[in-house]
């Protein structure tokens, strides 16, 4: 067994995206204790940075010490109690995973389905809310990573509140890449990832909970099944001002990386980052369409940072992706679930979202397709 | 908000321990995709390296993508079903956490208690096994990080099998630092951490499951409550030979670090690492005893890598630790739970276990104590 030296790739898949060298450097700084006063100061800054990019004043805004899937589970495990009715919108893989979370926790999932590639239908959700007055939660994916479709989180959250539901929102792929306003849109519980539009390494998951959501957590009838994800305990470590008490050992170096990525995002400005993702999407779109390649998602609902496009007729999916990887060190994403073998997912997230990468991708793709 | 540059500490607490510069460098290598063929090859090597240091041929040997507490939860969440009787040994904080896992999962915990600082009593465990023939699992901590006591895992596991129980063993602090033989000792499910005797960064948790344990997982009556930790799903990504299917996004850079730490451990030789931890413990012990400082755990049951010593009469705990940290950049650990304010925990784990650190610690402690 020898030291591992990875190839240097350009990551244009659905995540991880390219990690900026500044963030890689930050990860390699000397590890210190997870209760060191210097570390605790960095934790406070990290919370403030996350509040700024989530656009929230929620006190409970912090990174969960595990990947986005665990961020999802943190929201459901803390908010869903056995027999709770939860309306869950499925328009791709991650809505399905939400449903899986609900049923494993003993909740009852009321499913609102939309075709993969479409946004969540506001009308269908309103009907489900009307039909299920005892429902307590509405859960949906803001940015469906399996298709690249974006849903109208603002409208869905306001609607949920009219029917006395709190909301759980998946923003793994949207945070930092497309408009997202937790407080203004009245999102109650939200989770994201670090390896998408924040250009940091995978492994931790920023979350934010409103007071309304926290109240539901505090008033639970049954304890949270997961000790590791129980926010009542986690907050003893991440809570502000309070004496920090040991819960689990935080992933110190990964948090260095997240901190640096937040510094960079605030230097750029969150709105500027959204605009950069949009304008680079347009460049890529124009190039792809000029090659006769079509998008899965209609323009209105399309995420600029994740471009799902149909694989042209007669083209060998695996072979093209292998050519890009082997000849150009370029990774693009395969389709997931219903779209496996039918679409490619081309990510333009975070540090990956740069003109030079678009030029590389278009040129390499032309070559691989023999155009 | 500015880039964070941590102070350079010597970490002689209960973990994280000092991360070797080779491992820090490995963490900063370029991120690649978690389904990249190059990454998949590294995953296979990581599994083999873990098998070598766990001393097991268990096919299910892999790192969980979250800290040691989540490794613990992976074992309990997969093996405990509602109403299962589980005998759990409590001789410190982590035995208590095991019990908490069991009850949250709907299991019934039968507690075998020993004084903090003592090893788990084999006689008491045998009595509990006799008294509870319907018990299915015996759970105990091999190396209790809250006290530095080591229990006789070999004897306890063989005993459990005589009574048809499978075993769950906490080896967070023992792996790589003290004798541990998963197959020879017949351990069924074991979890550890990377930030102790492996000298890697915190954030992931190596586990290993025997065939006997896997059979119990596969024959569950109810699904695992946690989607994220369900081994039936995780194995689709980490399973050998099989086509790797996406489950969650692996913490790529943290796994680079673990891989490098395994390369280093195998270069040194696991048995040599055990011997180094023992001989350095003896050096530190002699120095501390010469200062009139006494150990919490008797010599026979003492972990060489974690030295719990009584704070001398009249000494201000917090002030001494602050002096060490501020004047010497040296971190030692506070007492936990029942021993908060009464003991210090001085770690000599992994890369921290070096003569120069012992010299520093003894000298700085003399100064801080005014000796």
Automatic annotation (TrEMBL), chains A, B:
Binding residues for substrate: 345
EC number: 2.6.1.44, 2.6.1.51
The UniProt record lists the keyword Transferase: yes
Family matches, as InterPro entries: Aminotrans_V_dom, Aminotrans_V_PyrdxlP_BS, PyrdxlP-dep_Trfase, PyrdxlP-dep_Trfase_major, PyrdxlP-dep_Trfase_small, SP_NH2Trfase/AEP_transaminase
Catalytic class of the enzyme: transferase
Domain of life: Bacteria
Annotated positions of the N6-(pyridoxal phosphate)lysine modification: 196
Any one GO molecular-function label of the UniProt entry: L-serine-pyruvate transaminase activity
Transferase found in the keyword field: yes
Keywords: Aminotransferase, Pyridoxal phosphate, Pyruvate, Transferase
Cofactor: pyridoxal 5'-phosphate
Record-linked CDD domains: AGAT_like (cd06451)
Pfam family, one: Aminotran_5
Gene Ontology annotations of biological process type: glycine biosynthetic process, by transamination of glyoxylate
Boundaries of every Aminotransferase class V domain copy: 33-352
Family (UniProt): Belongs to the class-V pyridoxal-phosphate-dependent aminotransferase family.
Protein name in UniProt: Alanine-glyoxylate aminotransferase
Species in which this protein is naturally found: Bathymodiolus thermophilus thioautotrophic gill symbiont
């Amino acid at each position: 067994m020898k030291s591992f030296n990875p190839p240097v790739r350009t990551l244009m898949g659905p995540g991880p995206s390219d990690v900026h060298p500044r963030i890689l450097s930050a990860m390699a700084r000397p590890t210190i204790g997870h209760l060191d006063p210097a570390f605790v100061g960095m934790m406070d800054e990290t919370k403030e940075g996350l509040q700024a990019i989530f656009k929230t004043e929620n006190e409970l805004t912090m990174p969960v010490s595990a990947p986005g899937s665990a961020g999802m589970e943190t929201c459901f495990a803390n908010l869903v109690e056995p027999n709770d009715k939860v309306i869950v919108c499925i328009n791709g893989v991650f809505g399905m995973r939400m449903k899986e979370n609900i049923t494993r926790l003993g909740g009852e999932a009321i499913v609102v389905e939309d075709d993969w590639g479409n946004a969540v239908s506001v009308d269908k959700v309103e009907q489900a809310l009307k039909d299920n007055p005892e429902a307590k939660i509405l859960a949906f994916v803001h940015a469906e990573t399996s298709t690249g479709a974006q849903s109208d989180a603002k409208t869905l959250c306001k609607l949920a509140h009219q029917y006395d539901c709190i909301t759980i929102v998946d923003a793994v792929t949207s945070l930092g890449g497309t408009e997202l306003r937790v407080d203004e849109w009245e999102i109650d519980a939200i989770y994201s990832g670090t390896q998408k539009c924040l250009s940091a390494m995978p492994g931790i998951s920023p979350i934010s909970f409103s007071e309304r959501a926290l109240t539901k957590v505090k008033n639970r009838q049954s304890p949270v099944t997961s000790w590791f994800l129980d926010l009542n305990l986690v907050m003893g470590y991440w809570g502000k001002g309070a004496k920090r008490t040991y819960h689990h050992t935080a992933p110190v170096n990964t948090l260095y990386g997240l901190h640096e990525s937040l510094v960079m995002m605030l230097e750029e400005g969150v709105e500027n980052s959204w605009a950069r993702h949009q304008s680079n999407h347009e460049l890529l779109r124009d190039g792809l369409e000029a090659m006769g390649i079509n998008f899965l998602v209609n323009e209105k609902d399309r995420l600029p940072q994740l471009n799902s496009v149909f694989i042209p007729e007669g083209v060998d999916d695996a072979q093209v992706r292998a050519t890009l990887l082997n000849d150009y060190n370029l990774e693009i994403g395969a389709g997931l679930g219903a779209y496996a073998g039918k679409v490619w997912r081309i990510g333009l997230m975070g540090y990956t979202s740069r003109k030079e990468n678009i030029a590389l991708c278009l040129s390499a793709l032309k070559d691989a397709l023999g155009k």
